[in-house]
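The record is given unchanged here:
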Amino acid sequence: MLDNEAYMSPLPIEGKGDVAEKALRSAIVNCILTPGERLSESALTEEFALGRGAVRAALARLKASGLVSSSARSGWAVAPVSASEIRELSAARRHLEPLLCSVVLDEASVQRLKALAEMHMALTQRYELGGDIIPTIRRCEREILELLAARLGMPIVAGWLVDLWDRSVRLVNFFEQTGRTRLVPASRSTLVNAIIDGRKAEALELLATANTALETYLLDRFLESEAMVGAKPARRNPGKDKASRISQKSTTVSRIRTL
């Protein structure tokens, strides 16, 4: 039997619920709300300056996206990090991302992708020379992937891909923040050129290589942690780095509201 809740995430939402989901999603993906952290609806309404109903609806959607969990006994919590999630994400990406190699691109999309590919190449060359430009590279990469997903003409599949990418970024952010090893950027400029030129076999190979590198990185970092990270939801400590956390969340909400 199909789980109808699984189809909630890709559908467009509007208004306060949209703002709430974007704010909470950004906080989770960027590990401001950490894996395993318990979430209080009342605390979130205060911290994010959002209505209780909007927060509850956002949490339900984020649960469908795989970013939060809930139980009658423990309430809401940010999804923990686990080896099974890493493998699940890798398998799902390997299954869905090949569709990006068959997109039909109009001239405007081609020109935008070419510009992004040139930017990505220039940024990765700077990265090889040294410098902390990883966030910029990843924003460029994400724009490339989302543009390709938008051209699929499959809104539900595109929504699933966005969820998979967000969950993957969350894991990378977590391990990079808690360790010293960073994920090396994938060759997305080469991917773009292969797709535009119709070299599908090459594009498929590039996607597979990138996914293998990501899975290897995540599993290696997970094994280094020596335990299931976040398996036991942590209690929130309002006094711990409160000023820093509020500042980060306020910035996130403000940035989203200007979109």
